[in-house]
Amino acid sequence: MEAEYGRIEARMRAAILSEGRFSVETVPDPTPAPDGVVLAVSACGLCGTDHSIYRSRLLPDGAILGHEFAGTVVEVGAHVREWEVGDRAAVLPIPYCGRCELCAAGRQNLCIAGLGEMMGCGGAPGALAELVAAPLSSLRRLPSSLEPHLGALVEPLAVAWRAVNLGDVSPGTRVGVIGLGPLGLFAGLIARQKGALVFGTDIRPKRVAWAHRLGLGAFLADDQPDVRIRDLTGGGPEVVFEASGRPEAIERAANLSRVGGRVVLVASYHTPAQMTPGSWFNRGVSLLPSIAYTPGEFEEALDSIASRRIDVAPLITSVHPLAEVGAVFERFATQSEDVKLLIDPAR
Q1: Whole-model pTM above 0.90?
Q2: DSSP string across 238-258
């Protein structure tokens, strides 16, 4: 059987993480499960979670990272009827269990089993490779009119979509964004689409320039941004998205918020934060940690990209071949001013 399908000789390239370094190696091609497919990866995005895994060696040697991706079906499992070779898909990388109380309540983003088995983050191998296997439950169809690389931005846009929904943004809501990286910019764009008035701030001039280019109000950190945002929003935003990942910015977000406002944490934090509970309590400010997304939010993100209601293409700073994965991860370490970096394994 193996000889019939050529599996013995089939070898793909993948970025293997070992001893804190990436090396591009040839490894056996993945095989589709009976109810799954194999995709040729069109593009894979990188984010702070990936860098944390890399920097802190959170996964065992031999891991293949990459959970923000899209691709083209090149092989289908024995039981697959609704997908064919050549179909294109964005992949929802979290295998929600569908059985826990949280899944039953529509809060799949908190499914412990699903988050623990996320593709490229401790579960199945990820998409920093030429090929990746995925179950049918994870596939979301991409229209043929959509540029393939854009499918890799569905997942991070869905993360921001959860944050905006959690913040209860509606027409006329005044919004502040601390940190204008991908998630901060995505949250600002979604909030604006919902009719909000959005102002952001960042320490990096190029990211502030990106926000202006996308039509968002934004200020540099040395330009009294909090004072200006409070003035422009008549006392502070109803919702502040903390997207910088800097622990000290959490307390700052509370101070920026208006009385009775909401602070949504959409970044990852890896060191302790000093907070003064009384300042939150006395001003009635709510703290809302946001993690992942529900299937519905993933589909909302996909629809907004496919319909071009949100134009994510300008946020792609550069696209790199698989051989440059190590160098790209080092750019995270130097706090580069890039917005969204993609890996195209076919290059």
Answers
A1: yes
A2: SEEEE-S--THHHHHHHHHSP
